[in-house]
Write the structure tokens for this entry.
Amino acid sequence: MAPRSLNPKASDNISQRLAGQNSPQPRRRGILVGMLAFVVGIFVGIFPLGAGLLTFFDPILKKKEEGGGEDDSAGGQLLRVGLLENIPADGTPVQAPVIANLTDAWNREPNQPIGAVYLRREGDKVVAFNAICPHAGCFIGFDTRRDCFQCPCHMSSFNLDGSRQMPSPSPRDLDMLVVEEDILAKTGEVWVRFQNFYPGTADREPKA
Ligand code: FES
């Protein structure tokens, strides 16, 4: 015989509540709440991640934008290397450092030496040579006694116009650079399209 409850009303309430806990409706509500929290979590996470990625790649994107006009349709980076008035009128070459702002994806280093050029006057014009020897990449000097360019490493010699004195270890003449004549005529400033080339080859091959 089943025991009788002392409070049949309370007993009914408890039974109803227990029945309610096992019903499928609250479980479904729990699943929906869980899914909603998941979706909100994704959105909350995606926006900071996107902003972070944009910040991370921003210098690369900027560099692409900046790099657009600087190089290469005419070959090389357009840089100011001196003044016409500082180059001897008698045709003696002078060496000038090449200074540029170095920029990689995340850093910018202003006014860094990146090479050197020889500048020589020919009347109102200026001729520019890269000061790197095309044989194996040493810096060439200028021999005032012999009036020619001379490489100290393996003794390649070059005439004032950059051509080799034969026989020569160098496989090609000095690397001539483009001088911006319009700027020179208007301002007296010497701007060159500066470029380095791979040594040891008969043909000029620009370095990237
Ligand atoms: S590097 Fe100039 S002669 Fe060899």
Observations:
- Confidence is low (pLDDT under 50) at residues 59-73.
- The CA atoms of residues 24 and 93 lie 94 Å apart.
- Residues 133, 135-136, 138, 151, 153-154, 156, 169-170 surround FE2/S2 (inorganic) cluster (CB under 6 Å).
- Helices lie at 8-21, 24-70, 181-187.
